[in-house]
Design goal:
Layout (H helix, E strand, L loop, with lengths): L2 H26 L6 H26 L9 H12 L10 H21 L15 E6 L2 E5 H8 L3 H5 L4 H17 L25 E3 L1 H4 L10 H21 L10 H24 L6 H11 L2 H7 L4 H9 L21 H4 L5 H24 L1
Antiparallel strand pairs: 1-2, 1-3
């Protein structure tokens, strides 16, 4: 096998192994009762692993049988693309805003509003659920619908649970085919979650009111809907994903989820700043610049980081990289000093961790003030 083949194989195996360990821990965790919320958050990453690994395996063996049903494969693709946020080339900013405004929000409103027989009490009805861990929002019912990849109306129908379960059973079979096991390996974050740090009761709100009170204010509810998705992603990778991780080591899949989330959120905020300046308040503009203007954010968003991001996203090494400098036995294949010459792996991971903390902190300031 070539170095390129080794890198692809190791990346796929690492993600599949992690998925297997997570599935094991999901059933054994003290926080198992909150597993549904965690799955809302983790769904796009699992879809990313499935989607990208299968694309690579098809190149290696074009005769490889499809791992998923046709319906599940479409769901996987939509779920995986949700991680692109505003950088989704098919939708862009306007398309993502329209998807929430015209499909996700109406589906929730139709399902949960105007159901009370007493019309005078309908103002008490809610259509947006907020999910928190350690006092910070990690997902919402709107964000979960976005990341799960299902048609919003179909997902919210009575009796949709078995369909959702069937798709994730297909995921499980696929990961097992890649070598995932549930009887060995270190614990994932799921084993370290404290059930008492989840909200002890679901926090439901009226979306029209809530989206007028966060981030950019009442004039831009469409933008605020998407900013809530970014907020949940950042809080999830900051507060949850790295729980229990070895402070002196680098776990490929954990770092991958954290780095890709940070990269896509920073890029999306920069696009919003550059392409929709007239929609942003002075405060919002200032806070985006505060997030994207730090030294660590500039490092991660530099053009030199794009091939590094692509390797984590798509598994294959960039065609321009000097393969003689790649060492798949080293953390992150020894790529850090290639793309970031002033850093070794440890110092780069520290910079990424710092940027995640800074970005999350400012987004919370922006969201709640």
């Amino acid at each position: 096998m070539t170095v390129q083949d080794d890198a692809v194989a190791l990346g796929i195996r690492s993600d599949a192994t992690y998925a297997g360990r997570f599935i094991r821990d999901l059933g054994e965790s003290r926080a198992a009762d909150h597993g549904g919320i965690v799955m809302f958050c983790l769904a796009p990453y699992l879809s990313l692993f499935v989607h990208e690994s299968y694309r690579k395996l098809k190149v290696i063996d074009p005769a490889l049988p499809a791992p998923l049903s046709t319906d599940a494969e479409a769901i996987v693709a939509r779920s995986r693309h949700s991680l692109k946020l505003f950088e989704d080339n098919r939708r862009g900013i306007e398309g993502q805003l329209a998807y929430f405004r015209d499909e996700i929000s109406p589906a929730h409103a139709a399902r949960f509003l105007n159901n009370t027989w007493l019309k005078a009490a309908r103002f008490l009805e809610t259509d947006l659920g907020l999910y928190s861990y350690d006092g910070r929002i990690i997902s919402t019912t709107h964000a979960a619908t976005f990341h799960l990849g299902f048609d919003p109306v179909a997902l919210l129908e009575e009796g949709s649970g078995p369909n959702l379960q069937a798709v994730y059973e297909e995921y499980g079979r696929y990961f097992r085919a890649l070598g995932a096991r549930t009887d060995s390996g270190t614990k994932t974050f799921m084993s370290h979650l404290d059930p008492m740090r989840f909200d002890q009761r679901r926090n439901d709100v009226r979306s029209t009111k809530y989206y007028g009170q966060v981030f950019n204010g009442k004039g831009t509810p469409d933008i605020n809907r998407l900013l809530m998705v970014l907020r949940g992603l950042m809080n999830f990778v900051d507060s949850v994903v790295a729980l229990g991780a070895d402070a002196n080591g680098v776990e490929y899949t954990v770092f991958k989820m954290r780095f890709l989330t940070l990269y896509q959120v920073l890029g999306s905020l920069q696009l919003l700043h550059d392409e929709r300046p007239g929609d942003l308040t002075a405060r919002s503009t200032s806070l985006i610049e505060k997030i994207t203007g730090t030294p660590s954010a500039s490092l991660i968003m530099d053009r030199s980081a794009k091939p590094f991001r692509n390797t984590l996203m798509h598994y294959n090494l960039d065609s321009r990289v000097d393969l003689a400098r790649v060492d798949v036995t080293h953390p992150l294949f020894g790529l850090v000093p290639i793309y970031f010459p002033s850093y070794d792996t440890a110092s780069f991971v520290e910079a990424v961790d710092s940027c995640i903390e800074e970005t999350t902190s400012v987004m919370e300031e922006w969201a709640t003030a």
